[in-house]
Amino acid sequence: MSLRKLASRRATHRRAVIGLTAVCSAALALSACGSSGSSGSSNAGASDNQASSASGGQSGVDIAAAKKEGSVLIYTGSGLDQVRSWGAAFTKKYGIKVNVVDKGTYPVWTQWQQEYRAGKPTADLFYLSDSSLLTKAITDKQLMKFTPSSSGDYPAKYTSPGYFYPLQENPLAIGWNSSKVSASDIASIKKEGYNALVNPKWKGVTSVVTPASGGSDYTWWYYLMEGGKDKYGTDFIKKLAALNPKVYTSSFPGYDGLAAGDYYIIGDASTTGLSTEYAKGAPVQWMYPDPTPVFTVASAIAVNAPHPNAAKLFQEWATSVPGEEAWYSGSAVSDAIPMNSKAKDLSKFTKESWYKAPTNLYNPLVSDLKNYTAKQNDLISSWQSIMGGQ
């Protein structure tokens, strides 16, 4: 069963997952990001000169002006290869180059804030896994108001109309390298769930990502240290630290390390990252602990975008059905749940015998919004003090 089909069922009986309107306290002084470029393609509902209207949005994007601008730059924390592959579909459609900067959600956001204050804007669009950053940006008048024609196809509770739209819902998992662990080991990991990460058997071959990376990584650790603290809490983090895990400062190098067999098991792993490695043929499998932390990845346009017409056209395309489905059809295939109600879930590995879709999702941006933002700095500091400062 696809995650999309499962999502429609599970909404009636278990959802601790509600909207993404948040106020962010994330003024983290984190390191700046590096940048890389790319191009790509798909198909979108547009004429030669103007994007067409579909579901109640404003449409009217000037395609000729967008093509004249020639490129867009996306700041993201959702994986360089994945976003490049997705952007390649846009490039193929419109001939507009898509460049990508990615080094974790909070670091890349901090970089843009510094550029914004210096009056030297570079980013055109944001594709981020913590929409509370975007909510704060609306208050600070840092986002361009633009309503894509597919606006009405997105769930209102996840959307800030005219500003940001949630393109995917992404569950977090525990992953392993199936060439490095036995069948009995896999059975134990599935049975233990979170506790597999503190099993002494995996000392020296476990990896995790610091919550300071932001977005999905902070969401994972927020559950273990706050939402589920009665069961896990700081004692769990101390047990983990005793196993000397590899701590990555951003997610995707961790997935690369898992795929290469440098480490055998990884926690706080996004399905997007794991499925990207899977699509490349890596011996990577995963399971969803109970409850399964989940985050929503949202797209928005910077108020001072250097390429405003190209940015609008990308947002128009990204929120369309072809744009959503292009996320699943590139060289890096993802198993995130598409949020456009008309888009199909094109995940290819849900038929694998080892795969089981999540059934109990936990979204702290919804169930524990106030603490999620208020506890951010303290939680990250506490985690770093236990784990060794990263």
Give an account of the 3D structure.
Keywords: Signal. This protein is an alpha/beta fold and 390 residues long. The chain folds into 2 domains: 16-169 and 296-338, D-Maltodextrin-Binding Protein, domain 2 (3-Layer(aba) Sandwich), CATH 3.40.190; 171-294 and 352-381, 3-Layer(aba) Sandwich (D-Maltodextrin-Binding Protein, domain 2), CATH 3.40.190. It has helices at 3-10, 63-69, 80-94, 105-117, 131-139, 183-192, 216-227, 233-242, 251-260, 271-279, 308-318, 321-329, 364-367, 369-374, 376-387; strands spanning 35-38, 40-41, 71-76, 97-102, 125-128, 165-177, 206-209, 246-248, 265-270, 284-287, 292-301, 337-338, 361-362. Strands 1, 3, 4, 5, 6, 7, 8, 9, 10, 11, 12 and 13 form a 12-stranded mixed beta sheet that branches. The two termini are 38 Å apart. The relative contact order is 0.21. Mean pLDDT is 83; it is low at 1-48 and 52-58.
List keywords for this structure.
alpha/beta, D-Maltodextrin-Binding Protein, domain 2, 2 domains, globular, 12-stranded mixed beta sheet, 13 strands, 37% helix, ABC-type Fe3+ transport system substrate-binding protein, signal, 390 residues, disordered N terminus
> How would you name the CATH homologous superfamily of the largest domain?
Periplasmic binding protein-like II
The residue fraction in helices comes out at: 25-40%
Series of secondary-structure elements, N-terminal to C-terminal: HEEHEHEHEHEHEHHEHEHEEHHEEHHH
If helices are DSSP runs of H or I spanning 4 or more residues, what is the number of helices? 15
